[in-house]
Structure formats: C-alpha cells, structure tokens
Amino acid sequence: MSSRFMDLMLTPSVQAAQARAYGRSQARPTTEGPQVLGPDEAAFIAGMDSFYLATVSEEGWPYVQHRGGPKGFLKVLGPAELGFADLRGNRQLLSTGNLSKDGRVCLFLMNYPLKARLKILGRAEVLEAASNPELAEALIVPGQQAVTERLFRIRVEAFDWNCPQHITPRYTEAEIREAVLPLRTRIAELEAELARFRP
Ligand SMILES: Cc1cc2nc3c(=O)[nH]c(=O)nc-3n(C[C@H](O)[C@H](O)[C@H](O)COP(=O)(O)O)c2cc1C
Fold first, then answer.
1. What digits encode the pLDDT tens for the residues 76-118?
2. Which residue of 38, 81, 143, 147 pairs with 88 in a disulfide if CB–CB is 3.0 to 4.6 A?
3. Which CATH number fits the domain 33-168, given the four candidates 3.40.50.720, 2.40.30.10, 2.30.110.10, 3.90.79.10?
4. Residue nearest to atom 21 of ligand 1 (CA)
C-alpha cells in the first residue's frame, strides 16, 4: 500500500481499530506532497469507461455517483492532475454542491476483466465550462451528445492499487462482441458450407 495513501488514511481511529483487533497498529507514515501518477496509472485511467466518484456532504455523509463515458473521458492533465467533463444531467448537482464546501474526493476505478482496481484520493474543483475554454477543449469528448456544463479538475493527493482478490471478471457488451467475433465468423462459414449440401 502506498505510504502517501496510508499517511492520509491511517487515522487514529483506524489505528485504534487495528489495535483492538490485532493487539497492535500500523505506524502512520509521514509523507510530503502529492503522489505522482506514473505510466501504469495513466494507461489504466486512459482505458476506463466509467468510475465512481465519492464526495462528502457538508453534513459529513459520504456520497457516491457513477460517472460514465467513452474510454479516456477521465483525462490525465498532468503528473498529479485529472479532469473530466460534467454533463447536463439530473439537475441535482449533489457532487458539485458537496465540492463547493469540501473538495476532497475519492475516485474508485474498476477494471473487471483485468481484476484490477485503483483508488485515487484528491481535491476537486468545479469550473464552469463556458468560462474555461482551454480546459473545456481538453476535457470535452468529441461527439458527446449531452451538453458539458462544468469541468471537474482534480489534484491527486494519493493513490493505491488493490489486490485482485474477490473481483469477479465481468465484460462489457463491446468486449463480448469482440471476443465472440471469431466464433460468429466461423458459424457463418459453417452455415454457408451446410447450405451448399441442402437440396
Ligand atoms: C440525459 C442524461 C444524460 C446523462 N449522461 C451522462 C453520462 O454520459 N455520463 C455520466 O457520468 N452521467 C451522465 N448523466 C448523469 C448526470 O450528468 C448527473 O447529473 C451527474 O452524474 C451528476 O450527478 P450528481 O448530482 O449525483 O453529482 C446523464 C444524465 C442525463 C439526465
């Protein structure tokens, strides 16, 4: 587990839970500055077509929303910076409202076929797309039907990869279509061959 991640997560109450359960607790590491995304993280993020975004309400409730788009809609903007376009949607603005009080976010990225997941902690700011044309240009996905109203820019603080245990591989429609393409082709060939023997 990354020490930056544990520096942020290993709070006294977590340490106390460890001590109660196991008689001892992990030492909380001291780290400085944000953790920088490397090529593995960048490649993983570029392949995502969805992720979960957790924010904290001003009353302390955790809130999680699913975000989806074409692969690569979550963009690496810099060594410790991510962004994505927020589309006109349900008009509730729960994430946006939460972030106006507390910018802390957790992004939860799952790749089911690879049985891999990446957690990212960061601080998000929400910017109006109309008044930030350069960032909008970088984040708006070409061909996107819905209007981009806001832009989410996230300064990464820490990230952590989890082990693949307990992740059931799942595949998207597009992945299944690609995987069965050789079978469909073969079936079509065999059907054509069979047709030649029919009276
Ligand atoms: C017509 C429509 C299309 C939407 N398209 C997407 C989409 O492609 N990706 C996505 O993450 N959310 C999409 N949403 C959801 C909204 O953008 C939603 O407002 C946003 O996730 C904010 O949610 P929150 O208020 O829970 O933070 C769509 C909603 C509607 C009504």
1. 999 999 999 998 888 899 999 999 999 999 999 999 999 999 9
2. 147
3. 2.30.110.10
4. 67
